[in-house]
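chain below, 443 aa
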Amino acid sequence: MAPRAPRTPRVDPADVDRELAGAALGELVGAALVLDEQLRIRVASPAAAALLGSEVPLGASAATLLCGDRPKRPFAEALAAGLPFQAVIPHPSMTTHAGQVRARSVPLAEGGGWLVFLAAVEGGDGEPVLFHRMWTRDARMKETFRIIEKVAAEDVTVLVRGETGTGKELVAHALHALSPRRAGPFRAINCAALPGPLLESELFGHVKGAFTGAVKDTPGHVELAHGGTLFLDEVAEVPLELQAKLLRMLESRTIVPVGGRDPIPVDVRIVSATHRALRDEVEAGRFRADLMYRLRVIPVRLPALRERPADILLLADKLIVELNARGRRQITGIAPSAGAALERHEWPGNVRELRNVLAYAFAIGDGPTLELRDLPPEIAAIEPASAEVVVASAEAARGDESSELQRIREALARTGGNRDRAAKLLGWSRVTLWRRMRTHGLA
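prediction:
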């Protein structure tokens, strides 16, 4: 009898479809997961499996995969509450992998599911560092600090680009403090705060009689910064006619005060800053190209606070220490619900806005804990149902401190008895929640 041919294993078309979808997802966006309404993983790209260090179990709870039973689970809590969120979380396989993963969730237009983008956090273990009054855990900020250290010794112009409140003047101070000019003066001027004629006088000074009220020769910021560093904040706001004089100063190393005739030699390092793209300003005819090239010999970019979410609570803790030293109130901790609200906010005003929000909370609230109700309405305001879930999840997910029974009770209490939402919060299916409720005599 002829030997029987080996049976070809049956291939489930659904598995093929999922593999194709995962491959397509990976080609488009890299490491990513698609979750259904119950936060179960339906599609995973190959890059997601490579990043997480193991096969991603389809149908498993994304909250459990990404956050496990850790006491703090802000990402899982936000997903359960139906809120878009981004966070830096410990790598899910911490037993075999040291590092962190950046996760960002985007709601899908139909079906109530989520698309979750994943990325490795490069550059170390995320330990906080302090650099010239700037705190960070973020790898990109640490790289920025390294660049500042390297270029500080070079006597060239530096252009710092960053949104309002990111700390551009702190970078200028760091460049000065690390430079050979550190013993010289540091002067700063906001170019957006003054009209053209007054800005010219403030920069280059004026002679007696140059205009009404000019009763004596007065040096400007450039001359006063001789031998040191001059910081030109919001340099994109300098009027075109004054840009020509600024360029002449950079090229000739001399200035002519308003109303004066004789050039004065100056030895100044220029550090400038802007929240605008100077190339766009040049194309729009609002900024001179030759001046742009003179100013941006070394460009330094400061990432916005929303781009480094791991720094939000770190900076909040450091700012609270400063505020504790000044005010009547002493805050020793941040409530989980308040911390989640701070991490959700986009922070268009960056670190300056965070400082103002905390100052508000100090003034409004009482007691040693910063509560959600202490925050300004635009920070704390979320949908009432979502607010309940976030508060519940943050408080209930204290892991080892609470028994499973207590976690179930708190999840149900905070979700108003809604088992679907409570199951999401706990990272379980509805059936699993029902079974465990029966085990504890709650069903």
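The chain is about 40% helix and 15% strand. The domain at 139-302 is CATH 3.40.50.300 (Rossmann fold).
thats it, cya
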